From TrEMBL:
It comes from Ridgeia piscesae. SUPFAM superfamilies: FAD-linked reductases, C-terminal domain, Nucleotide-binding domain. Pfam families: DAO. Residues 209-228 have a biased composition (Basic residues). D-serine binds at R283. Residues 209-230 are annotated as: Disordered. Its main location: other. It is found in: Peroxisome matrix. GO terms for cellular component: peroxisomal matrix. This is FAD dependent oxidoreductase domain-containing protein. Keywords: FAD, Flavoprotein, Oxidoreductase.
Length: 344
């Protein structure tokens, strides 16, 4: 009997996992269940700039794991970038200028997976409006959620996968329907599995029409305010906020004014840009990513098989494919155990 697998969550972490599971276990029935799909997920708000950051208190040995996930994601996105699907998938390359940063700002192994990382020259700092201080520049992959997610959904559907829009209050609602559950609910895990270590770090952004700006510019202020402007294929993203513990999904006018003023100071030619949308997303921050198998408590004749993959903070795009590869291995272990039980 084919195993039935349900990925709960239709953001970048859930869709990358679902595509990977469907391609690695072609005989399984795979469903993605979520109360929101693109364009209404946190992943749609993500700037999609690939480098590992905002990973909480990830301890030393896990930093190496995060670096592997990052490297695997970079390799995968590079293969998409070099394929005819790149434009549809929203995958491109972007050069970033990060003011007030040093090369030590980037996680050591992650650093090796960027292209051309070096300190900014005095001339580059002047062009970015700085008369002193430091900065770094490097090129990396950009994966825009608003394009990546529809492409992943099409890729998933082409494997025969099902998409179901539904909100659940507990994973136990699905125990009778599926053999294996994969929990990719991002910030939703706070309520769904009562994991209070997942907390929001609120990010507000302004999207403006594409103009001559072609890079990512970022400046971090002493007060932890960070302004960044970044080009995507059809728009420029202006950011942003990093407000810990803030669950507000509505744009706040004072945040908007501060973002606008900060970004125009950084790139004055943005002043005339046309605003397309104000967006807010809640980064699912956790001391570490939760990627593990849990064998739930037996319910009648069923022992629920659950794989958790959530809590990627501000790096969900950057880690998504690497985490999906580990998720598939755990799902395969579940399917193997289930088939052994069925034979006994
Ligand atoms: C402003 C901003 C900028 C960012 N920039 C970057 C960046 O440059 N690079 C980067 O790598 N990352 C970036 N991030 C982080 C990135 O967006 C997140 O890490 C990533 O989106 C998390 O993906 P996810 O799939 O886990 O969560 P989500 O995208 O939130 O998806 C969760 C899914 O679970 C579903 N769900 C939740 N609870 C339930 C429930 N009870 N029942 C049914 N369905 C449920 C939701 O409907 C949704 O489909 C940024 C985030 C923000 C806010």
């Amino acid at each position: 009997m084919a195993a039935s697998i349900c990925v709960v969550g239709g953001g970048v972490v859930g869709m990358m996992s679902a595509v990977n599971i469907a391609e690695s276990l072609p005989s399984a029935d795979v469903t993605v269940l979520a109360d929101a799909f693109t364009p209404d997920t946190t992943s749609d708000v993500a700037a999609g700039f690939c480098f590992p950051h905002c990973l909480g208190d990830t301890p030393g040995h896990l930093v190496r794991v995060c670096s592997r996930w990052f490297g695997e994601t970079v390799d995968h996105l590079l293969s998409v970038y070099k394929s005819p699907a790149a434009a549809d998938a929203g995958v491109s390359m972007l050069t970033g200028y990060l003011m007030s940063a040093t090369t030590d700002t980037l996680n050591v192994a992650g650093r090796e997976r960027t292209f051309g990382l070096r300190p900014m020259s005095a001339a580059e700092l002047r062009v970015c409006g700085k008369t002193g201080g430091s900065g770094i520049t490097f090129t990396t992959l950009l994966a825009e959620g608003g394009r990546l997610l529809p492409w992943l959904m099409d890729t998933f559907k082409a494997t025969g996968g099902q998409l179901v829009r539904r909100k659940i209050m507990s994973l136990s609602e699905l125990y009778d329907e599926f053999d294996v559950l994969v929990n990719c609910t991002g910030i939703g895990a706070n309520q769904l599995v009562r994991d209070e270590t997942v907390q929001p770090v609120r990010g507000q952004l302004i999207m403006v029409s594409r103009h001559r700006h072609r890079h990512r510019h970022r400046h971090r202020h002493r007060q932890r305010h960070r302004h960044a402007s970044q080009t995507a294929i059809n728009h420029v993203t202006l950011g942003g906020t990093e407000q810990e513990g803030n669950w507000n999904l509505s744009p706040v006018e004072t945040d908007r004014e501060r973002i606008w003023e900060g970004c125009v100071r950084l790139v004055p030619s943005l002043k005339g840009a046309r605003v397309i949308a104000d967006r807010v997303g809640l980064r699912p921050c956790r001391p570490t990513v939760r990627l593990e198998r849990e064998t739930g408590v037996q319910q009648g004749t069923t022992t629920p098989q659950i794989v958790h993959n959530y809590g990627h903070g501000g790096a969900g795009v950057s880690l998504s494919w690497g985490c999906a590869l580990d998720t598939v291995q755990l799902v395969k272990d579940c399917v193997h155990d289930i088939s052994c039980w069925r034979q006994t």
